[in-house]
């Protein structure tokens, strides 16, 4: 469906052209003064300079030209040259009717779908998920869903951190504790046990212990390095242990991400990119892109136009070891080979911005990635506690994700129980659904790049700009619909306008609600292509508010004019569908009651 805003722009473009002006002046925007009008066109102000006329004269001409247009309701020229206007209710109702019979709610599906990789997990294997992992998961999942909704082929990649010293530390620590395991017996030739020699909770304790220990014991650190080296060279026992670490850790990660309603399409690992490194290094050397600087292999990525100092992109350390950048470069080579994406979007902590700038510049300069491939770094800010510092547990430790979710669910549970009577088990189930919405909406409603304060009381409130408020609106609409349907079993409620050419009176809150619905297809394109879930949240909140005002001003169930009532029911059914679609795209769902 052509978006309302585009239809109106077309109408004004034609008017400008027919009055002898360039078409570019016909751009229409949503009014920033909804108390005065619904839409506006400011083209006369810009055209005035080119045509050397007073803006108000041009605006008056356009108004005169458009005033009998069947779409427009009121149109006025305002000093110094604004054109303010509103549209007829019939136009809106027709538009919403087409939306409501469209399974995509009026959103065009991409005609030439792109393949887009979203790199948004980045958890490190064998370390518990903590609040730092929350933001990429929540933001990335929503971006993936929105872009997919527009018809693109989106691949969400967890990009597990399974490489480097942490693996060496874990294996060395296991050997310190259980030196007699067959994994460490050089002469052992049989099969290794299929059962891992540790559980997930043991594994989660092993890593921090080993990491602490290595700080004080350089010989242990050396041992761990040695293990990594041998692991990379195919040591049988270490490889078997590494597989155990991966399996135990992945099972736990999957469970955690499932609880967050976050689902990756591929679970690629940093180690998967390692086989691409030797070929890549040869290519960079042979084509003269890489040079040796202070023993290390680097690619210069500075450009003449740079105003800031930029270090080179490090490819290999002086001892030949690879670095974080090496892995990201090789991962891009791998992604080009496997998926040929049109874009890759990285949802990563904004403190890694420089790293990605170097990597992006390096792959473009060296043509490892074709220049028309979009590489986007979406850096997110920190989730802070009420003290404005990064969120911590009460004793100052890093908060585990599970514990954070438990505390939110508990808070929501208490709110539910204080509001109404419910069986404990049912309330707990509902609290889980509502808790997830509180957490995700609390995060997503902030612009990703900004830091924000995690405020459990505010996030779980049933009022204001919160997840629970949005769910509450959905539940309320569902209950009105259920009640109506119970009393009016056979009534057709698919029509927003029962008689054609209907000119009944429409209240302001009803028109506002219709205007909000009509924005959906335009809004979702902006939110998706700008990687901006906060725009989707802002829209959901506006729509929920428009519904609440409408609901409070009209007695839907008690309405005596049956036709009007039917039309209202059709309208709120549409509102429900839009809200449900939006929260699905944000990555959470609504309970049946709350
Ligand atoms: N594992 C990394 C970390 O903990 C994040 C990975 C982000 N993605 C990437 N392609 N580098 O910092």
From TrEMBL:
SUPFAM superfamilies, per the entry: Anticodon-binding domain of a subclass of class I aminoacyl-tRNA synthetases, Arginyl-tRNA synthetase (ArgRS), N-terminal 'additional' domain, Nucleotidylyl transferase
SMART domains: Arg_tRNA_synt_N, DALR_1
EC assignment: 6.1.1.19
Superkingdom of the source species: Bacteria
Domain Arginyl tRNA synthetase N-terminal: 6-87
Biological processes, Gene Ontology terms: arginyl-tRNA aminoacylation
Assembly and oligomerization: Monomer.
Record-given protein name: Arginine--tRNA ligase
Organism: Lachnoclostridium phytofermentans (strain ATCC 700394 / DSM 18823 / ISDg)
Gene encoding the protein: argS
